[in-house]
């Protein structure tokens, strides 16, 4: 099969399109013929191996999985023993380790039936970013109807889902994004949109019950100024700093949180079948629509990573793996 191969950490130029053996399918696993993959910020870190802390997950000295991409949509080609939910030929979407390839393997619990009304490209755009938004808003923040929710980075992969999910939970949503994306974020349902180029959300205007911060370009003090007295700040990036500064950025809110009235949280979103079904139902109900910025052919995955690294994607960057 054709796959994008990553032998070492480094610039996206090191990625190569090569022929390799199809991955073996184990007990409880499903092998999928990938029709579309999607990338997210984590793929950029995984390709470069920075921040170094990420290597605890992706392999200390060289990439553990060798193929980038976490998200896919395609059809089931083979199932391992004890798989009960799907069978060969089913259209599915989900998360895996290495979706920038014609075939990938994942646990049965990390996929679900592809939303019937969506293309493979749209479905592939959902898992990691959609679940990250769902887990933050539903499980960490437990957003209630009527709450004032601000999404920083509302036009990005996670943000475009977060705006729609927060809105469907009945929140009054404020999105923060750049000038070019204001109309798009409003079209997703945001009640208010701040253009970060001319509006400082920390300048002492509106205060929020929840800030879901996908950018982390502001200090904790700035963010807390924009929170109501018992509001919550969910930090969902932490990657703008390096070395000791990165550690401080990760640990400081966790140490501070018990000492202040604000709740300061980080979280890790883990893909699972049931929540993919929740997102599927939302697409069917018309409350969730993937926003796709660009679609690249598999061979141009390095260009897709380079584009994503610039930090200005409008929604998701998708890889067309072909039929
Ligand atoms: N906790 C978890 O388990 C989990 C899971 C998935 C992802 N994440 C994290 O979530 C974060 C966001 O990921 P993503 O995929 O959404 O990133 P992304 O798609 O690369 O976000 C890019 C967006 O950010 C906007 N942006 C750039 N600078 C901004 C600023 N100063 N203020 C407001 N918006 C700005 C850009 O809009 P403009 O072009 O207008 O600037 C662009 O639309 C990443 O750090 C990722 O690691 C965490």
TrEMBL record:
Coiled coil: none
EC number: 2.3.1.111
Span of the signal peptide: none
Residues covered by the Enoyl reductase (ER) domain: 10-319
Enzymatic class: transferase
Keyword Oxidoreductase set for record: no
Pfam families (UniProt xref): ADH_N, ADH_zinc_N_2
GO molecular function, one term: oxidoreductase activity
Keyword annotations from UniProtKB, A to Z: Acyltransferase, Transferase
Protein name: Mycocerosic acid synthase
Organism of derivation: Roseimaritima ulvae
